[in-house]
Amino acid sequence: LSRVVSVYCRCLAWCWLSDAGRETCVYPLPEPQDLFQASQMKFEDFQRDLRKLRKDLNACSTEMGKVCKLSSEENLQPFKDKMYTFLSQAKTELETQEKQLEETQKIFLELSVSFSVKPKAGEKEVSPNTFFSIWHEFSTDFKDHWKKQNKLMLQERVKMAEDCFKQAREKASYSVKPKHATGIVRLCTFFYHS
Length: 194
Fold this sequence. Notes:
This protein is mostly helical.
């Protein structure tokens, strides 16, 4: 894994849009704690919660019907219209949530098949715990190696910058050479030494 991370970071460093080896570099995978939280989810819990909401919505609708039946026409409005609007909106949102959960579960199962993850013994389908626990471990190890590699690349960049600065400073420094006498100074020097 260390070699994979090293090659990955080095390849990114060649990309001029990349922040690899810089302090602003962002971890490229999902955070390990996010994967851990995902591993704790259970589709059955969400389904149970939606069934409870459906039951509560039906009970609310029944109660609204009783109130409307027992109330006089003059006291019925605006309660009836507002409750009817509320219940129809709640029913629509609940149906949307149920469809999204069903679709999410279907996509999750397809994803687990594409990664060849098999259910644990006693499970009929791959659970989020099984799938995301594997990814949590991988992401944790990858992040450790990624931090080390990124730090190493940052140190290399700093050293390269220092070397470039040092070379530029050496080139910029000038040496003072004694000037050879010319003209009248040369003649005076010539006669003086003679």
